[in-house]
Model the fold of this input.
Amino acid sequence: MSGRYDALMPHLIAAPVVLPLVAAAALLLIRELHYHAKALIGVAATVGGLCVAIMLMAWIHDHGGPAAIGVYLPSNWRAPFGIVLVADRVAVLMLVLTGVVSVAAALFSIARWHRAGVHYHTLFQLQLAGVNGAFLTGDLFNLFVFFEVMLAASYGLLLHGSGALRVRAGLKYIAFNLLASSLLLVGIAILYGVTGTLNYADIAQKVSQIPAADRGLLHAGAAILGIAVLAKAAMWPLNFWLASAYSAAAAPVAAVFVLLTKVGVYTALRLWTLLLSADAGASALFGGDTLIAGGLATLAFGALGILASQQLRRVAGYSLIISSGTSLAVIGVGDATLIGAALFYLVGSTVASCALYLLAELTERSREIDAAPPIREDESDRLPYRLEDRESADDDADDYALAGQAIPAATAFLGLSFIGCALMIAGLPPLSGFIAKFAMLGALLDTGAVAAATRPMAAASMRITLFAMLLVSGLLSTIALSRAGLRHFWSPHDRAPPRLRIIECLPITLLLLTCAALAIRAEPVLRYTRDAAQGLVDPARYIDAVMSARPTPGAASGGPVTVGVAQR
Amino acid sequence: MEILLAATIGVLTSCGVWLVLRPRTFQVLIGLALLAYAVNLFIFSMGSLSVGQEPIIRPGVPADLLHYTDPLPQALVLTAIVISFATTALFLVVLLASRGLTDSDHVDGEEERP
Done:
């Protein structure tokens, strides 16, 4: 079967990692004074990354069926011996999502943030290389390497713009992630010790043949690895750092950080469905109940947190936690239709959280945050003003003619965008958040799947709890977001409208249009995510594709390339 | 040798965990470094310990783990050392920045209120 971009395959699979790395290297050579050139290269590379991701998706779409798993052997060694990059439906979906979010963040940053410190665009590209690599990698150790590339860049980006608040948040963020990385290494080492391989597909083949004496060690390794990955995915109680760290970051940086939790969710999904699949013998679906319970706890924590938040940035942070909790709990149930709906939800909620972070910056700018010293962390959740003052202010407003006043365009834009984000996050119609939530609730009630489920525990009580929690969290986010909207957009009528630049409005519009497009074209997207979920639930095709990939004959095999990549 | 290695990893880990839980940034830094050493030794031990054997295949000797040591954990540990060294150094820089900006070496940037 032939399709578009066949001539570029399989080398196109490496492009999402190579392109940002090359761009980052090029950016390092340019002096900070030439920030226009830097911005141009940075944005061009980011847009290029989005184009490559869309090309990969088109390639997969053209091939359909089982052939649609692209496998690239960077060192030209056969699968379990050399490293692999694997582009299947889920990975490519996440690449496109990364592309959309990063283009929006890069455009937003060139309005002013990229001049707040040195090497912004370089770190941004390195971050993208790490994120894309973590999506594409097919072996555990490269997962660690790409996680570290991503995290190292994120440490730099979090501190971008400096200030005591960022440094203090960064200190805790770095310490926490260093601990999580240690756990990740311990987990990887145990899995290697038990199975003797690091390749996902190879481990998946060998898991069912592990002798009973080593089974406990395997489970311990998987659990330790799981803790490290779920800490990135912001599962409760490993997510206490998230809201304060992300709200300390500059707006475009926080918007890209939205992707980091998705890397965690994706990795948990990939490893859990592949290594501990239903075919894994005695280890089949190990930890599934933990995923559901942890996801539910995360969801509850996020819903309460969003209700308690005063600042828009913290609202965005907790909406991110809600998104992670929902995805993890739904993934833990493990049906293909449910995972498909969860992937659709994941895409929509990521785009919406990203837009909300950008929006929060523009809104808070009109609250003269810029001139004020940074808000102290322990005071940040105080009420901005006393309620009595507000009521008296409202009384005074009676003789102030509100009717017949034109709303400034900037305020109207911010307000409408905020409504869009709120609809997405709370899962209300007409945007895609509603469709995603409806698809998940529908799949939860699907009685056929309940009867066919292998785990009756997850089939009955967990499904009902999850169903209720999804609805309750939707209600709580609606309350929190309407309150935030009232406070930020309706009450301050005497405040001067914020001055916005086109380049700042463009990314938010882009993101919200993506949400609208997801709602209009919901059917093909849902079909895509369901196919992707089918591929996850039935990993035989993935394993086949990776293990049957053959090195290019004639080219020099192995040698320095392997060493170069392994020792980065 | 197994007991010695296991005890070393255990002591390093327990010291590291204790230090990471301390309130001073420098203690946290040393704790993270100790944990990194423990993890590196742990990875090394996963390749089955052997004395006086090399990881490169020689002609005439059967290519199995009875005659060689597993080269992969050595490669992994090399990468892990580099990465943990670099990130610890970065943490040190942030620690100094925090010390400069807040005039305190407490992890919260201020002393605990009594």
Remarks:
- Chain A has 22 helices and two strands.
- The first strand of chain A starts at residue 70 and ends at 72.
- The CA atoms of residues 68 and 283 of chain A lie 28 Å apart.
- Confidence is low (pLDDT under 50) at residues 369-380, 382-402, 557-568 of chain A.
